[in-house]
Design brief:
With 279 residues, this protein is an alpha/beta fold. Helix content is 37%, strand content 21%. It has two domains: 4-241, Rossmann fold; 242-279, no CATH class. The protein has helices spanning 46-53, 77-83, 100-110, 118-128, 144-156, 174-189, 201-204, 224-227, 231-234, 243-253, 265-278, and strands at residues 4-13, 23-31, 35-39, 61-66, 69-70, 84-87, 162-166, 193-197, 209-214, 217-222. A six-stranded mixed beta sheet has the order 6-7-8-3-9-10, sandwiched between helices. A four-stranded antiparallel beta sheet has the order 2-1-4-5, covered by helices on one side.
Length: 279
């Protein structure tokens, strides 16, 4: 059985004067090397959940264990934040320097990494997100997707075990979204544990597991095929199936012999090619 790297056990958290829990009795387990998506409408508790995982906020009750360390233990809080790097929604809010290379160096400098180690770590991080050729560029001249990849490189240079993405593609155009998501998928394939907060169903469909949050609680969990198997079940939470699943449903209703369970563009293309070959 794969090792658990994130564990939330009956966790509650309420913002001051909110009147109700932002995270309400949530239990969640993420395996090392897994890419898990958390879906939900605005205000469902997704962002609060990831802030709890890396210790930006502490639970009012329950326990959060990140790589085996309790976030309430002051002795471990900086270790937790280094092990669980976080990328936020707006790339412009995460870039602090006037040159890409210097921006990636920022976290290393603040954590006391020896200066002789920095160039190799910076180059490796930029190479991992396909941004090494832009190392001497000014961040403000980059596209939104490129800026977000630089933000990811800044976290990667810290060598975390976990990366938390709080709607990291929400402010990007479709091309930028794809660039960032493909980068994260590749990092996950190389062993990085990823928690991917999103409201894009097509992104969740490409993760290993999906958790749906509503009013602070996790209301449904499973593989993408399990979670998206029943379109009607998602409607009370104002969610829908991924676009390719909806298209497949319409085509089946029109008499096209497509199987159940199509979730991604790649799966749709394979099935259409197979169908064409039989004609």
């Amino acid at each position: 059985m794969t090792e658990e790297i994130i564990a939330l056990r009956d966790v509650c958290y309420q913002y001051e004067d909110a009147g109700k829990n932002a995270v309400d009795h949530v239990s969640l387990s993420v395996r090392r090397g897994e890419m898990t998506a958390v879906l939900g409408r605005n205000g469902s508790g997704k962002s609060t959940l990831v802030k709890l995982i890396n210790g930006l906020i502490l639970p009012d009750s329950g326990t959060v264990l990140t790589d085996g360390m309790d976030t309430k233990d002051d002795a471990h809080i900086w270790d937790i934040r280094q092990r669980a790097g976080m990328v936020f929604q707006n790339p412009d809010n995460q870039l602090v320097a006037t040159v890409v290379r210097e921006d990636v160096a920022f976290g290393l400098e603040n954590t006391g990494v020896p200066s002789e180690e920095m160039p190799a770590r910076i180059d490796a991080a930029l190479k991992a997100v396909n941004m090494l050729d832009f190392a001497e560029r000014a961040p403000h001249l980059l596209s939104g997707g490129q800026k977000q990849r630089v933000a990811i490189a800044g976290i990667l240079a810290m060598r975390p075990d976990i990366m938390l993405f709080d709607e990291a593609t929400a402010m990007l155009d479709p091309r930028g979204r794809r660039e960032v998501f493909d980068t994260v998928r590749r990092l996950n394939s190389e062993g990085m544990t990823v928690v991917w907060i999103t409201h894009f169903m097509e992104e969740a469909a490409e993760c290993e597991s999906v958790h749906i949050m509503h009013d602070g609680a996790i209301v449904l969990s499973g593989t993408p095929r399990e979670v998206f198997a029943d379109r009607e079940r998602l409607r009370p939470w104002r969610l829908d199936v991924p676009p390719m699943a909806a298209l497949a449903q319409r085509l089946r209703a029109a008499g096209v012999a497509l199987p159940e369970g199509i979730l991604t563009i790649g799966e749709m293309a394979e099935e259409v090619e197979a169908l064409a070959a039989r004609l």
